[in-house]
Amino acid sequence: DANLATLEVVKYVVKRFGLHMNKRLGQNFLIRPDVVAQIADTADLKPGDPVLEIGPGIGTLTQALAETGAAVTAVEIDSHLLPVLDKTLEHYDNVRIIHGDILKTDIAELMGHKPFKVCANLPYYITTPIIMTLLEERLPMERLVVMVQKEVAERMTASPGSRIYGALSVAVQYYTQPEIIFEIPPKAFMPAPEVTSAVVCLDVRKEPPVSVMEEKRFFQVVKAAFSQRRKTFANTLKAAGVSKDGVAAILADCGIEGSRRGETFSLDEFAAIADAWTRYNKKQ
Ligand code: SAM
User: Fold this and answer.
1) Dihedral of alpha carbons 201, 202, 204, 205, sign
2) Is residue 273 lining ligand 1, measured as CB closer than 6 Å?
3) pLDDT tens digits, residue range 216-246?
4) Rounded to whole angstroms, how far apart are CA atoms 25 and 191?
5) Within the chain, what is the greatest distance between any pair of CA atoms?
6) Measuring from atom 22 of ligand 1, which residue has the nearest CA?
7) C-alpha span between 91 and 89 (Å, rounded)
8) How far apart are the CA of 189 and the centre of ligand 1, in A?
9) Measured distance CA(272)–CA(78) in Å, rounded
10) 101 lines ligand 1 (CB under 6 A)
11) pTM more than 0.95
């Protein structure tokens, strides 16, 4: 059984290198080869394609990525794993392991300012900061295939008005077309995490789905709308420092009811509000 074989390999590696899984660094290693293969397949890599892996761990997914012939760059924070990766990836000359913290890495520089894909089983304690950093920096990425907690995957793909629709949903849907590909049970990992995981494919858009006059304003509105979910939108604008007249003018301009709650707005509506706010500011 291939699953058992992989489990044995992981156990062997852990024992041989005397590893202690570091919970604080979100270390849950995949032990199912079919899952590893399916994640790598979703990245749809051709020989020579640059791909960035975040947190290679002991190199399980890294190996599957390397097998496609892609040019793999993997950033791992835990120095204890470096000798392990040296060993598990010794037969590949298309893998580059970088020791570092992905949140402190100049990724554009690392990837040579050229288009690339991302494929990673992300450390769950920093999933959102990693994804937001990658997207906001407008890196020349084509596709991100990321394994995250199922609940986070559902937030990324949530629709307006749903309980889990939030700033992450809007940002991910603004920059990409997200799709949940499949779910993974805790027993596919060692040690087993407490939550179910899911693989999400984020295809980066060439153009945003809505055009806005000021992108900063758009994200300011989004942030305000979700920071006080229970407030009506008119009160949210007031809390963001807009005068009473300003609130009335902005709402009249975009034709949105001030009694609605921000968490019900679609991307189009957020864009309409942001532009109305921009126009109002220009008149002042
Ligand atoms: N890719 C492996 C797998 O699928 O079995 C391991 C995935 S494990 C969920 C997350 C990995 O990310 C761990 O190896 C951990 O050490 C690493 N990691 C945690 N924080 C990191 C950071 N800030 N930068 C780079 N790697 C990090």
Assistant:
1) positive
2) no
3) 999 999 999 998 888 899 999 999 999 999 9
4) 13
5) 71
6) 101
7) 6
8) 13
9) 45
10) yes
11) no
